[in-house]
Task: inverse folding
């Protein structure tokens, strides 16, 4: 069992109440930071920790914080990204539902470090039931003097509010999120200016994921140097992994970065192996946006080394033979799953969620969905495979926000690694569209 | 006057809830309360947001009606047509499909004799497939109002769920209690 930074107390009965949370050491980082550290000292600790953004991009949190503009007389904001809409990701939801005070503690300590006096948690609208849990916990924190004016007599003031979205994946993108928080459509903004200069209400703003912010109290309590000792290389600390798909034990697991992928899939501490005694076919290791890898390439890198659950190891080999840690959504496919159908499903998702501002994304996602639909339903043409590759290429890098890339990568990687399966669908439409039919030719080659 | 007869009336509790959200934002930024206001309106209006409700929101937030319409049409949670008593928002995205969501959606259609987007003749259920609800480890799953129903992984589980819903009143949001 590795060290648990985020989930140590998550299953303690009553941990959602202030009383029990404090009994287990809760809000110590607020006392320590506000009473004994300057804001810059907190930022330094986070820098030293090597903590990287847990929302998907993995950008170093301390560095992001140090970019925040600090013009005199203009408010600064910290906005927590609790939009969690990337398919396969459900860690923030579980975390907030069970241990709301842990996020609130992170928000107070982080807001202090950034000099924000008003902060927001933007939560996807579907999670209104968690908004209620957070609001209840926030009310408790106000009553205990942990929020509001002159927190714990330190002279520091902070108001914290929760804001719901309305159902839109794109609002997880940080500038779309800010638009949404201002009561507008979730259209991503052109950058620059970056949120660090002009964010919420045109003021300097930091947007961080729930898990990133929730990691800060431990760093403040134990120092950044201690945090940096956990993990491997530039993948420091622990990570919440949302494990889903055809495994025996789906759920959220906190791992020390560096656990071998094979152990993560087969150990009873984590996924507990493939369900129903079936074989592993493929894994999407970081949320629907990252490349899919066949069994052989998820377990070992192209160079034959064990693949580890780290930012670096999962991306080893680039997009030719690697993928990404992304948001830590680990989606497992057994031998009975159809890659074509899954790719069509994802393409439909991105088409549905494109905000429509950029033509390559708006048109390209629709095009990919339609072509994949016809392949899946037995009307594909042999040229369709190259057409998909070409459309994906034309979207990639040509859009305002990364949703375009996120739509292109799953399609491009599925064809890269499972081309035979697409060809089989096109050549044998009757067989391929029979109920429960799956192409098995490639599995034998791909399974180790 | 016809206009006043049709005008949408928020309850006092609903108005208080919208005001509470307005108070979370700086002076002049009351438009930020638009999404919360739309959620309140939907809960007040049998699960959908009518044009009259949108106009009432525009008035409260002191913005143009078009600013409300363009937002209400962007976000998938807001129903712009009347819906059944219980809207079944079923996740149709990849990870849930690995655990049988496609088959579950087909079963719902068969059992309720409706297609996606339709409402049963008795007005009890509307079927509304949606994208990933951050519940992928417990799929197949669906949402009704503020509640998630998870692990609907067999026909028996689905039958039990539908039976329970038939006898269930629409839930009351926290602010209405
Ligand atoms: C289409 C899209 C969806 C995203 N969804 C989320 C999300 O649901 N949650 C999240 O934290 N970050 C999401 N991100 C990443 C955010 O833009 C941003 O990088 C992140 O919130 C920064 O926080 P971090 O540095 O702590 O990870 C998304 C990005 C894109 C392009
Ligand atoms: S890439 Fe797609 S989602 Fe992003 S701004 Fe352009 S159209 Fe909108
Ligand atoms: S895929 Fe259904 S909840 Fe995520």
Result:
């Amino acid at each position: 069992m590795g060290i648990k930074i985020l989930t140590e107390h998550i299953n303690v009965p009553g941990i959602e109440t202030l009383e029990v949370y404090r009994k287990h050491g809760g809000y110590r980082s607020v006392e320590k930071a506000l009473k004994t550290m300057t804001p810059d000292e907190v930022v330094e600790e986070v820098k030293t920790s090597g903590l990287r953004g847990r929302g998907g991009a993995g950008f170093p949190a301390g560095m992001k914080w140090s970019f925040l503009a600090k013009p005199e007389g203009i408010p600064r904001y910290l906005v927590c990204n609790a939009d969690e809409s990337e398919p396969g990701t459900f860690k923030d939801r579980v975390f907030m539902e069970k241990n709301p005070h842990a996020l609130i503690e992170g928000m107070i300590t982080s807001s202090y470090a950034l000099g924000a006096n008003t902060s927001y948690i933007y939560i996807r609208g579907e999670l209104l039931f968690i908004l209620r849990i957070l609001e209840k916990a926030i009310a408790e924190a106000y009553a205990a003097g942990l929020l509001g004016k002159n927190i714990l007599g330190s002279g520091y003031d902070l108001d914290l509010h929760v804001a719901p979205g309305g159902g839109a994946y794109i609002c997880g993108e940080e500038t779309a999120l800010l638009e949404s928080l201002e009561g507008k459509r979730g259209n991503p903004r052109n950058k620059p200016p970056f949120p660090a200069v002009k964010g919420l209400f045109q003021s300097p703003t930091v947007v961080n994921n729930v898990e990133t912010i929730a990691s800060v109290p431990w760093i403040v309590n134990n120092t950044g140097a201690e945090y940096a000792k956990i993990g491997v290389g530039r993948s420091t600390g622990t990570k919440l992994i949302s494990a889903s798909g055809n495994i025996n034990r789906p759920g959220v697991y906190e791992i020390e970065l560096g656990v071998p992928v094979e152990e993560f899939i087969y150990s009873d501490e984590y996924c507990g192996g493939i369900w129903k005694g079936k074989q592993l076919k493929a894994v999407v290791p970081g949320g629907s946006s990252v490349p899919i890898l066949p069994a052989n390439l998820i377990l070992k890198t192209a160079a034959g080394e064990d693949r580890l659950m780290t930012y670096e190891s999962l991306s080893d080999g680039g997009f030719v033979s690697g993928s990404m840690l992304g948001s830590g959504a680990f989606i497992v496919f057994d031998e009975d799953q159809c890659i074509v159908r899954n790719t069509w499903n994802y393409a439909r998702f991105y088409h549905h969620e494109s905000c429509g501002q950029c033509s390559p994304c708006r048109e390209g996602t629709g095009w990919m969905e339609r072509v994949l639909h016809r392949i899946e339903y037995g009307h594909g043409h042999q040229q369709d495979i190259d057409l998909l590759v070409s459309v994906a290429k034309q979207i990639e890098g040509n859009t305002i926000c990364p949703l375009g890339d996120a739509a292109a990568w799953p399609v491009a990687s599925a064809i890269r690694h499972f081309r035979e399966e697409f060809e089989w669908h096109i050549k044998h439409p009757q067989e391929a569209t029979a109920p429960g039919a799956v192409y098995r030719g490639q599995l034998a080659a791909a399974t180790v | 006057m016809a206009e006043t007869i049709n005008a949408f009336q928020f309850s006092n509790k609903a108005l208080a809830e919208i005001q509470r959200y307005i108070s979370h934002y700086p002076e002049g930024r009351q438009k930020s309360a638009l999404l919360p206001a739309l959620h309140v309106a939907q809960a007040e209006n049998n699960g959908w947001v009518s044009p009259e409700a949108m106009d009432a929101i525009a008035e409260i937030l002191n913005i143009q009606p078009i600013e409300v319409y363009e937002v209400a049409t962007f976000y998938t949670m807001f129903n712009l047509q009347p819906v059944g008593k219980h809207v079944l928002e079923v996740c149709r995205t990849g990870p849930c499909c690995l655990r049988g969501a496609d088959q579950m959606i087909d079963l719902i259609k068969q059992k309720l004799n409706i297609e996606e987007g339709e409402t049963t003749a008795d007005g009890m259920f509307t079927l509304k497939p949606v994208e990933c609800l951050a519940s992928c480890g417990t799929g197949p799953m669906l949402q009704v109002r503020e509640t998630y129903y998870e692990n609907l992984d067999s026909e028996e589980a689905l039958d039990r769920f539908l039976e329970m819903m038939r006898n269930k009143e629409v839930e009351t949001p926290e602010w209405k209690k």
